[in-house]
Amino acid sequence: MSPDEKWLAAAIELAVRNVGEGGGPFSAMIVTEGTLVSTGCNRVTRDNDPTAHAEVVAIRAACRARGDFSLAGATLYASCEPCPLCLAAALWARVDRVAYAADRHDAARGGFDDREFYDLFARDWATWTMTVEALAAPNSAEPFDAWLANPDRVEY
Amino acid sequence: MSPDEKWLAAAIELAVRNVGEGGGPFSAMIVTEGTLVSTGCNRVTRDNDPTAHAEVVAIRAACRARGDFSLAGATLYASCEPCPLCLAAALWARVDRVAYAADRHDAARGGFDDREFYDLFARDWATWTMTVEALAAPNSAEPFDAWLANPDRVEY
To answer: Which of A59, A101, A131, B79 matches a 20 to 30 Å C-alpha distance to B30?
Structure first.
């Protein structure tokens, strides 16, 4: 077994186990230089947190463990293709690499909206059921003015 | 002032204040039937959590307050256009509506990658710096098989 195969097999096993514990069928792991930093399982319904996807949970745990908001150099292994939420989380976490096993079509078979949400992202927001609208606000630039004027700001 | 204007002005004010407290220049609020359910501010660098965007923080807090993983019927107000992470979180949280003030170009002026990540989402993953790859795993379907075989599963 290659390291990739080993980590993905472990993630898949963890995802199966998570179903038995009342979670969703998803698991993820953060690995740096061959070492496991964190694991995460889907806890959306158990924790009443729609953002508690496996990858998000694993990223948050790895950042806590490393005391860093960047996971540069890390690989995110996921039992299933990350949804847009999780892929964006991986981008913001600056991981080097995402590797996954099952895909959005497998997730759709399980009744999950990952594929639908990718389809939405490829379409104009005006076509969505969820309304997304920009509203004029006279002082909308003020937070960024305050940010740029703050010499102690920590960029990410 | 319309209710929309009032909530966005409050979110913008909160975002400005958050900069003074060492956070990023973003804030969000969850409102249902004219009532504030939760607020959230960007805490990425303060909390070492790359997913602690204002909208994600507000969504998590609102779900905790309501004891529910769905925010159907709610509006998410954001001082700035939600990035792909936050827009996907809004979709998963099933909010009815997202209304925002500043946009991705304002965020880019502040040095944030929201616009860049939207551009990435519109391009083939093969062109990204972050590697995203599907790997064959013989048992990749097992988590979904276990899920569908679980009569107690809670769908979302």
So the answer is: A59
Residue pairs between chains A and B whose CB atoms are closer than 8 Å: 282
Nearest CA-CA distance, residue B39 and chain A, Å: 15
Q: Compute the half-sphere exposure of residue B154: CA atoms within 13 Å on the CB side of its CA.
A: 16
Contact residues on chain B for A135, CB-CB shorter than 8 A: 4-5, 8, 99-101
Token reading at B12: 């913008």
> Residues near B84 by Cβ (< 8 Å), separated by ≥ 6?
A84, A87, A88, A91, A121, B114, B117, B118, B121
Q: What is the DSSP string of B110-147?
A: TT--HHHHHHHHTS-GGGSSSEEEE---TTTTHHHHHH
* Best residue of A45, A51, A153 to probe chain B, by most B CBs closer than 10 Å: A51
8 Å CB contact between A21 and A15:
no
- DSSP class of A12: H
Q: Using one digit for the tens of pLDDT, what is the confidence trace for A84-135?
A: 999 999 999 999 999 999 999 999 999 999 999 999 999 999 999 999 999 9
